[in-house]
Queue: 4 jobs
Job 1
Amino acid sequence: MIYRFSWHFPADHPALAGHFPGQPIAPGAVLLDRLQLFAGRVPALGDGPWRIERAKFVQTARPGDTLAFVLETTQAGTFAFRIERDASLIAHGLFAVTPALST
């Protein structure tokens, strides 16, 4: 199943301070954090925590961009993702649910 979420990256986001002066870009960690928030809204994915199996950033996201987060369930406990701007790929990868620690 495919799930889509949209997010406008605000020009005044606190992560932009110093990242990079004069040429601000969205830190990858901010995008992955937003991805996890959206994944938490998908009942089929559980409530996490998740681990990043792989992530590849192919373009930068800039302040003011509206980004599409596309999550696709693949098998129990995993989901593939894409982050896009105007149908142009920003990042893609795979997340998996982290198993609970046994005591």
Note: The chain has a mean pLDDT of 89.
Job 2
Amino acid sequence: MMKTAVMVAVTASALLAQTPQDWSQWRGPSRDGVVPAAAGRPWPASWKRAWRVDVGEGYSSPVVSGGRVFLHSRKDPEEIVTAYTVAAGHIAWQHSYRAEFTKNQYATSMAKGPHATPLVAGTSLFTLGGTGILTAWNTQTGDMLWLKNYSTLVDTSNLFTGTAASPLMEGGLLIVQVGSDVKGGRVIALDPQTGAEKWTWKGAGPGYASPVAITVGTSRQIVTLTEGSIEGIDAKTGAALWSSPFPDEYHENIVTPLWTGTHLIVSGTRQGTHAYTLKQADGTWRAVETWKKPDVAMYMSTPVLADGVIYGLSAKKKGQIVAVDAATGALKWATEGRAADQASILLTANHVLILTTGGELLLVKRSPAKYEEERRYTVADSATWAVPALLPDGLVIRDAGGLMRLIGS
């Protein structure tokens, strides 16, 4: 049953159209970790906390639009969707719904989610919970527009630990990936206004990576990972275009694929980093491996691309920050190790921004020549797994149990 909390009056001007500085989805406005030019500058000597609120557990990242921060969290046995005011952290609206979830026996130290990051498109907010409950909300009023429950497809009895792929808007359709390693997987395109399903791809159970949309020649494709493969899907029809094996013994395909314009970069903690070109011959698509780098193995941290260089965090040596040539796989540089367990990685005009799970924010010069750390901030007292939202006037960060806004000081 849906529960509704108190609504807070907000001026109409704060609710109108989104701005280019809004942080509307997984890894930012363009879904590639690139920070808008107006955000994150100049870098202050330190950060101070403008506000912090307790939100419950989860790994879902905050998104920002129209003067509000939207967050998906959990207070067992319910998942909670909340809109906070950016200015003060006040609740503008909040809803909760029951989402029973039995944790995988191997995931004893993990929260029960949610894992997927919400998506804002216009005045609609879309959330996908750990059990596969997909909801659409009006960002202004908090009214629920529709709900689709895919929880019958989510089975955690084997290795799967819950739905994690963040929703994607492509060609006017809402794209979600649901399922599990026991029940199989689906990539589904829905009408964002009604929730009506337009097409469905069926295959292996999902990994944890989020799908991306790429253009290859004249073909628009959805690329995503399953528990043991990379899949290319026609963005308009849902037809399977190509598939390439990418097996992992624990089904931990977590890193979001990275498209450079010529190469598809995919990485895993046991597989290393691989690059593929996508080619069509006689009407058939193929993913052709062009290079691989076993010693650069990314676990949960999705890399960024700048000037032909991939910046990321390899799990080798307990965490190495690396720079890799995107065309050849050549290692440009790597730190010695123990840099971080995991990290969220973003790209600004001049820097690579790395938020470690230890609550440290590293400002690294964007350079293929050498690792050069310009600043290091401590921004949280507990673990920071979620990708931060960078705004023109500061940061929005989720820690282990709370949400906070930081401003320069």
Note: Confidence is low (pLDDT under 50) at residues 1-18.
Job 3
Amino acid sequence: MKIRKVALIIFYDENKRILLQDRRGISKLGEEWGFFGGEIGKGETSEQAVVRETKEELDFDLKEYKYVGEYSYKIKDIFVIGKVFISPLKNNLLKFKQIEGKNMQLFSLEEAEKLKMVCEGDIEMVRRLKKILSD
């Protein structure tokens, strides 16, 4: 079985809404919404990967972020390990220039739980965010 390690960034606003990427039209696994981020390259740390992926996907230099944990899931013959980071959105939304995906949107955590994402692991991470963002 192939192991794929990814670094993901979840931006959140003052109302605890999270920013998700519209993956319709670019999805490889049938998901409609997803987190920003991607594969951790060989010799790269998860921190380096999340900064690079944010630059590649949003043309934004990520400086303020916090590691909040990991989750894993199996898709087909791939075991995915996701390293998850969060970052306050502040006024950065206006600075984002989306390069990957067709759109992005803020969702409450309750709304995000009902979206079609890659797997139950993504939804479980949304549920974990309720506790993380309330601390």
Note: The first strand starts at residue 2 and ends at 12.
Job 4
Amino acid sequence: MVSVKTIQIIHFPNLKTVLAVENVLRNAELPLTREQIKKRLKNKIMHQTLNVILEYMEERGMVLDGRKGVLWVYDNNNQKLLKAERKGIEV
């Protein structure tokens, strides 16, 4: 993944958008693709803006971004992560 620092960012996300993406990911049962995240948001979001948010969250250990989608993992006692580890689900 290209670092936020090395690309030209056209539009920085505002806090409301970051919190909306966080809420969608926290409430998801399974990893979500970027398109699924955008569909679950109330307002439209540019793909590049979503990528900036997800990279920010990934760098801080809030999400895992894998082949099958993005999964919220920030909680210390995250039941979704523990369940995924037990089942051997690859993210």
Note: The mean pLDDT is 86.
